[in-house]
Sequence to fold (207 residues):
Amino acid sequence: MTREYSQEPEWYAIKVFFNKVFMLEAILDGMGQESYLAVEKVQLKGQEHIAAARRVASGEADSSLVKEGPVIFQRKPLVSSLIFVKATESEILKIDATLKENQTSSKPMGFIYKNADYSAFAKIPASQMQMFKLITTSGSGLLFFSEEGLTRYKEGSRVRVVSGPLKGTEGYIKRIRRDRRLLVCIEGIIAVASSYIPPADLETVEE
Fold:
């Protein structure tokens, strides 16, 4: 019996090897897949700007370089080798095959995170993805944690940000490195803590 795949797109996380996150971003774009890569943009100056301008002009630059008028920025991943993709169940199987086809030293380009019992690829709730996007585009001072490094920060008061650049974001308020920070999690994959948030910008959310 042929399995029917859901045509409802979901978010998935991909761990990318060999510093090829921008290459995979380009591949996903070529496949028509929506993706999200958390980056910071650093303006290039001096000799770095000149070298980047030559690469852009020659068509050799990848998507890590962004030209805005005369200014060139370097996009740097906030989380090393992690990219998210929105895909249907049949599309994520094609992406998995693409990762295996693009090998280096007999290893795939990366892997798609699976759920706790490894029975299927892990679908990320839209709400978690939305909060992650909000916080990773909010500015500097962010801290990132793996699932292992998150253990001592899991308990806390659930809050909603009611003003400022993170307005609408929900998470847990934590004191990390002596600052009150908002902690947002993508369960089983990663968590990110904001820079300091004033108590006046927060309201408690009932569990």
Remarks:
- The longest helix spans residues 46-58.
